[in-house]
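A reminder from the course coordinator: this example appears on the midterm review sheet, so study it carefully.

Given structure:
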């Protein structure tokens, strides 16, 4: 009789599992390989009141030059700048800092700093041991010793009306899309990051862009004032793709033929570039999912899970109180979450830059300090997947 009762309970449990959606626990990545407070390397932990009011925390960017070198750039202001009191971004004497870290031990292999005109300057791409750094309208290609290999001025004197506004980077770091403000039009240049040569240019009004090595995805307005998502090449017209969760405009290429749609508290859809939905994924925590960041080889991507304290105002960013709680790493070949990293001492509305190494084996992010984690290998994930259900949610 006891055996019969146990068997009945087991069958009932199995039916319950089969009839509901199961989201297994995501394993933790453990402790970081190293953690460094950047204040010891010039990072303005306590900037002036005017700097904080104008820029918030120091604008910071991360990128892996290769699997062994992490590049960190941040902006500071020269102390005692008289014009700082004006409180405008162009009234500060800004300084760009570049640090190259050795991943194995956290040592600084190279560092430099120099004046820069733009608070958004810094590293924009990295691959094969090279990085591209923006300083105003100039782009410079460096190696990991910070030796300049090539410099390109994107704002020539004869086109004074054409200013570099924003740069988008493909997941591999091999291609850049430069966005220019030129009067009433928006112009784009498709650039090879290996030699900083422009391959194509075109004009179109797009917003919330993301690019792969071959295509550009972005939103455009229709004559009826609706929004549609378009995927196009730099030298060919685009095609319209129907996406789930149309209220979300944050769409990111995670490899050459797959895009992720950030969906807030909802599961995150992964969609092929032909519009086919692959799956929707969500970890076990109820959090606000954002900041999709991919690895260069396109096998893994990371995103953050945050707590929104003011949930009634999540559509008004200037009134939202966001606290990053975790970073999740999703492994696409196995359709499984590789692990998550718990974020300690998250500041309110922090920019929270993060980066994955080319093969997705290393995660870096800047919270209260710069932290670097070694992530589980794919072989161990495949073994774990045979023991537990998939963490993806098929659509």
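Designed residues:
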């Amino acid at each position: 009789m006891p055996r019969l009762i146990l068997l009945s309970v087991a069958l009932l449990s199995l039916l319950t599992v089969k009839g509901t959606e199961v989201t297994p626990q995501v394993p933790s990545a453990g402790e970081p390989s190293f953690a460094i407070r950047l204040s010891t390397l010039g990072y303005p932990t306590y900037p002036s009141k005017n700097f904080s009011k104008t820029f918030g925390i120091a604008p910071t960017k991360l990128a892996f030059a290769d699997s062994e070198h992490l590049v960190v750039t941040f902006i500071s202001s020269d102390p005692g700048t008289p014009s700082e009191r004006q409180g405008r971004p162009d009234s500060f004497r800004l300084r760009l800092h570049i640090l190259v870290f050795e991943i194995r031990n956290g040592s600084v292999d190279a560092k430099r700093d120099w004046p820069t005109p733009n608070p958004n300057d810094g590293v924009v791409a990295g691959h094969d041991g090279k990085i591209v750094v923006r300083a105003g309208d100039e782009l410079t290609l460096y190696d990991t010793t910070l030796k300049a290999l090539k410099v390109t001025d994107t704002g020539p004197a004869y086109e004074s009306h054409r200013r570099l506004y924003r740069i988008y980077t493909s997941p591999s770091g091999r291609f850049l899309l430069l966005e220019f403000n030129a009067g009433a039009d928006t112009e784009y240049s498709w650039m090879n990051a290996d030699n900083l040569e422009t391959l194509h240019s075109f004009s179109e009004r797009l917003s919330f862009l993301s690019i792969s090595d071959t295509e550009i995805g972005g939103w455009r307005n229709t004559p009826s004032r609706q929004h549609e998502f378009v995927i196009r090449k730099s030298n060919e017209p685009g095609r319209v793709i129907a996406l789930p969760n149309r209220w979300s405009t944050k769409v990111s290429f995670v490899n050459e033929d797959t895009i992720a749609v950030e969906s807030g508290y909802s599961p995150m859809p992964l969609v092929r570039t032909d519009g086919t939905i692959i799956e929707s994924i969500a970890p076990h925590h109820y959090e606000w999912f954002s900041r999709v960041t991919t690895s260069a080889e396109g096998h893994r991507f990371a995103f953050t899970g945050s707590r929104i304290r003011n949930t009634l105002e999540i559509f008004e960013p200037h009134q939202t109180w966001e606290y990053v709680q975790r970073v999740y790493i999703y492994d696409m070949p196995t359709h499984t979450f590789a692990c998550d990293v718990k974020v300690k001492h998250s500041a309110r509305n922090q920019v929270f830059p993060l980066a994955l190494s080319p093969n997705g084996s290393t995660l870096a992010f800047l919270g209260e300090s710069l932290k670097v984690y070694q992530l589980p290998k794919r072989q161990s994930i495949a073994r774990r997947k045979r023991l537990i259900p998939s963490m993806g949610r098929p659509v």
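The mean pLDDT is 83. Residues 22 and 389 are 8 Å apart (CA to CA).
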